[in-house]
């Protein structure tokens, strides 16, 4: 699935990335079908989620304290078990 998870990154790394200045997104527990048009980097402040790639029963799980990189083009279902509160940023679109 190519989702990269870094558990408990240092506060120095988070500061260097400028995580607290990124927009925030939150959602209640439930299942959400998502398509990532651009690569997303996010830091989960709260919550827990299992991500299933479309058409697969395999999943990756991450939660509060994780820094996550989600690849461009991923079509998936987020199965949120605990309320999600995250900072996120998308890579700028690339021009041809």
From TrEMBL:
Pfam families: Cupin_3
Top-level taxon in the UniProt lineage: Eukaryota
Domain (S)-ureidoglycine aminohydrolase cupin: 15-88
Entry protein name: (S)-ureidoglycine aminohydrolase cupin domain-containing protein
Record organism: Brassica napus
């Amino acid at each position: 699935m190519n989702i990269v998870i870094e558990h408990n990154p240092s506060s120095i790394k988070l500061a260097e990335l400028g995580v607290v200045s990124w927009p925030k997104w939150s959602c209640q527990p439930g299942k959400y079908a998502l398509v990532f048009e651009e690569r997303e980097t996010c830091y989960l402040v709260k919550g827990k989620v299992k991500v299933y790639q479309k058409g697969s029963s395999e999943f990756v799980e991450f939660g509060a304290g994780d820094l996550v990189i989600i690849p461009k083009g991923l079509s998936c279902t987020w199965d949120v078990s605990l309320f999600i509160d995250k900072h996120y940023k998308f890579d700028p679109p690339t021009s041809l």
